[in-house]
Amino acid sequence: MARINPDALPNLEGRVVRTNKVQKTNKGGRTMSWSILVVMGDGNGHVGAGIGKARAIPDAVRKGEEDAKKNLIKVPIVNGTIPHEVLAMHGASEVMLKPAAPGTGVVAGGAVRILLESAGVHDVLAKSIGSNNPVNNAWATMKAFAMLKTLDEYAALRGKTADEVRRGSAQNAVKEESGDGA
Q1: pTM above 0.70, yes or no
Q2: What's the pLDDT at 68?
Q3: Contact partners, residue 31, CB within 8 Å, separation at least 6
Q4: Would you say 41 and 120 are in contact if contact means Cβ atoms under 8 Å apart?
Q5: C-beta neighbour count of 132 within 10 angstroms
Q6: Residue 179: its pLDDT value, please?
């Protein structure tokens, strides 16, 4: 998959999904640091997620945004929803995304909802199965986005046009009924 240049997307917005405070005990006391999950999206099909770690929250957010910009992907959106159902796993988290009818809205929770809204998907059904860890759910959702393909992409893989793929099963059924097919 080709890398997306974040400078070419002027309206990228970042959202903090989860902050995690970590303490390390040393001889002189405790050292505190933060790991923050950040989602960047333009609401027009581009979204990325990243983790930033630092001793101060603003530095961790900045690092998370930089990491999210490195992981930007293009999400195919058809009529405000995703093109097909998809199931993806990361660790013990599993995320299922299903296309929905117009007006349904985003039926999802937690990190999955933030990623879908940042990508610009308006109608979708999502279910988080297994672990409810926001970080693993975010990575599973990003994997699900990467698995999505439009009808044109599937047709190109098969060396056909989108109309041939769309009508293929209907034309084969007509041929078999009339006796023209083998």
Answers
A1: yes
A2: 93
A3: 23, 24, 25, 55
A4: yes
A5: 13
A6: 63
Q: What is the DSSP string of the chain?
A: -PPP-GGG-TT-EEEEEEEEEEEEEETTEEEEEEEEEEEEE-SSSEEEEEEEEESSHHHHHHHHHHHHHHT-EEPP-BTTB-SS-EEEEETTEEEEEEE--TT--EE--HHHHHHHHHHT--SEEEEEEE---HHHHHHHHHHHHHH---HHHHHHHHTS-HHHHHHHHHHHHHHHHHT---
Q: Are 99 and 124 in contact (CB under 8 A)?
A: yes
Contacts of 170 (CB under 8 A, 6+ apart): none
Distance of CA 71 to CAs 3, 34, 49, 82, Å? Answer: 8, 21, 6, 20
| Of 77, 36, 79, residue with least CA distance to 60 | 36
Question: Nearest Cα to 49, choosing from 116, 128, 115, 3?
Answer: 115
| Tens-digit pLDDT profile for residues 34-83 | 999 999 999 999 999 999 999 999 999 999 999 999 999 999 999 999 99
Please give the span between the terminal C-alpha atoms of the chain, in angstroms, as a whole number. Answer: 39
How far, in Å, CA of 77 to CA of 103, rounded? 15
